[in-house]
Design goal:
Elements (H helix, E strand, L loop, with lengths): L4 E6 L4 H12 L5 E7 L5 H8 L4 E3 L2 H4 L1 H14 L4 E4 L8 H6 L4 E5 L11 H7 L4 E8 L9 E8 L6 H26 L4 H6 L1
Parallel strand pairs: 1-2, 1-4, 2-3, 4-5
Antiparallel strand pairs: 5-6, 6-7
Helix pairs in contact: 1-7
Bound molecules: 5-O-phosphono-beta-D-ribofuranosylamine.
Length: 200
């Protein structure tokens, strides 16, 4: 069976990346991590990834500008024969050109039930809105921010006695479970390799 190759892009802690990488290593998620990339050289997740034996790469947005940094990501994707780009707390918005180039091959996780509470502060925004629930969404990335075909969603209740920190913790636990499950299902349903993408 073809083992899809995934690149995981992060900007910070990388707890979702860690959950995915570990499940690839145990075989729970039948995929291979080609590299873990970050726009932030100090991302804690880069150390975690390296400790777990993954190749790591840094893309210097500030130094090189978005266009050049994205070109370097694209080169890394091609050079490592990566099939899927998995965003896990990657805080840079990908340009429409980049999204078009890797059409349907970029997947993201967002900490809300999209289309509710898009943007960089999904959890906080739901909290401030005093919503009684929020959730987690895994989706294909299209040219709009936090938008695209939904692969999986799970509701998370916000209980009156909960603090923001408790809610964040609860959401992250759901994320770590739902992301690998959604990826597994999606890869099984789309057993397409880089060569086939190129032929499309
Ligand atoms: C997660 O909440 C994810 O949904 C959002 O950014 C956060 C990243 O957390 N896109 P981590 O770096 O995976 O710990």
């Amino acid at each position: 069976m073809y083992l899809p190759r995934i690149a995981i892009l992060i900007s910070g802690k990388g707890s979702n990346m860690e959950a995915i990488l570990k499940s690839c290593l145990t075989g729970e998620l039948p995929a291979e991590v080609s590299f873990v990339g970050s726009d932030n050289i100090n991302a804690k997740g880069l150390d975690t990834a390296a400790t777990l034996g993954a190749q790591t790469r840094v893309f210097f947005y500030k130094r090189d500008g978005r266009k050049a940094a994205e070109e370097m990501i694209a080169n890394a994707i091609e050079e490592t024969e990566t099939d899927w780009i998995v965003l896990a707390g990657f805080m840079k918005i990908l340009s429409p050109e980049f999204v078009k180039r890797f059409h349907n091959r970029i997947i993201n996780i967002h900490p809300s039930l999209l289309p509710s509470f898009p943007g960089a502060h999904g959890i906080l925004d739901a909290w401030n809105a005093k919503a009684d629930h929020t959730g987690v969404t895994v989706h294909i990335v299209d040219e709009e921010v936090d938008h695209g075909r939904i692969l999986a969603q799970e509701r998370v209740d916000i209980l009156p006695e909960e603090t923001l920190e408790m809610l964040e913790e609860k959401i992250h636990m759901v994320e770590h479970k739902i992301y690998k499950e959604a990826l597994k299902k999606h890869f099984l349903e789309n057993p397409i390799s880089i060569e086939e993408w190129e032929e499309e």
